[in-house]
Request: fold
Amino acid sequence: MVSAPLVADKAKGSAPVEIAVRDVAVNFGPRLRALSGVNLTIRACEFVALIGASGCGKTTLLNVMAGLVPIAAGSVNVCKTPPRAGRRDICYILARDALLPWRSVLGNVEYGLEVSGLAREERRQRALAYLDRVGLQDYRDFYPSRLSQGMRQRTSLARAFAVARSVYLMDEPFSALDSQTKLILHNQLLDLWESSGATVVFVTHDIGEAITLADRVVVLSRLGTGITDEIEIDLARPRSAEALQADPRYHDLYRRTWTSLRESMK
Amino acid sequence: MSDAITSETGLDAASRTASGHSLAILLARALFLVAFLALWQLAVAFGYADPAFVSSPEGVARALLALAGTGDLYANLITTLIEIVLSFLLSVTLGIASALILDRSDWLNRILSPFLTAFNSMPRIALGPLFILWFGIGIASKVVLATSIGYFIMLLSTLGGLKNVDRDLLLMSRLFGASELRLFRDIRLPWALPGIFAGLRLTLIYCSAGAVIGEMIAAQSGLGVLVEAFSGRFDVASVMALMLVIAFVVMTLTALMDLAERHLLRWSKGSTNVPG
Reply:
């Protein structure tokens, strides 16, 4: 297991800015304005959750940070340079697991490392270590079609964190899972992230998920006009997704976020 | 994690019943063959069918032995085999290569597709005499005839396989930083493989037909020459014996391909938990 200091309790205010979104506008075609005047600053090692009404442009904003969507105005910098798809310091996790059906679980985890140019022996060792961390060591030779949805998404997490990039962009990776499986995946993601020291932007429509995982929940306006509210999640780390369910402060934050989300829909 | 364990036991049970069936299936096949041959033989023996038209199992067996005995068969078989293998290899390489180019270049695809469709719509067998005029009565004209059919089968099935590649897989690879070459090797090609294998099987069958029919039009040697000669003499038993030889050759080559397919596509075989 990789031992790294927990980043959560440190003063995040002093950490360098990792992602800077300034007055960004995005148009879909000549008429449709998806985003306008969006500002967002994310510091290194911060875990930020983006929530908002369906169609508010949260996935679009994530895609802007990934360099997948061109911007019409403003500026975006990730690690001081404008993002570009395929950059070697950004990792994007899709809503669907996108596992290669013709590769075993181990082969899939190795794929990201292979693309990153690691030598055969090293990538095998790394892939095995990360499979171990998501509890899939016994399934290394299985093809994805024989795995449950939760196991597939765990394989996808292992593939993503094995490449150890500095920024992780996640687009509702757990939306297809049932609530029990979600809790397991939350714990695994927290474990992987806390030892990675990476910056995470996590798009979700699940308030509980946002509070469980993030340092800060950002609420986007329904009209794509930027941030209507930010909620600091000052729950101590390391967190346990199950234990939080019984924590009154978790429920306070849930109510606070829920109210804020409802306001944003007006 | 228990979800996968239960589904695994389900899979084992499914494969057990499958292997349990296979012996019964083999027996049923043998029974079917014996019944067919017996019916044929008896129909001829009791005068319900004229052996001059339909021969008999016994007659075909004699003809096969006679063919094998003279040594005439082997030289002709070699010629036909060379034609089949050459036209098959040409069809496969040219077909896959053209499909890759047409898949990557939309404008080229749009320019060429009506011409390809037009040529593919022609009955190539009817062009056989022209191919012989252009390429002589040797092996070349048969290889061209067989390739002119097989090429399109390979082209269309590979194109079909390359279509609808999962966008998420391509996006995931690109976002990890994969090059175009890697996208081709690790995503597009494996994605197209089931389609390519379906095409390979058909291509082999049509290349064999093209080669034999080409030989029947005009040739110096080949199984088609023998078929033509025996047909001319109304030697039904020998024609049928030759058909068996050709079927055996094609089935052997297909079995080799199945072996490769089982290895390359093992990820898609019996991989789901739901039987059927």
User: Anything to note?
Assistant: The longest helix of chain B spans residues 2-45. Confidence is low (pLDDT under 50) at residues 1-17 of chain B. Chain B touches chain A at residues 1, 3-4, 7-8, 11, 166, 168-169, 171-178, 182, 186-187, 190, 193, 267-268, 271-273 (CB under 8 Å).
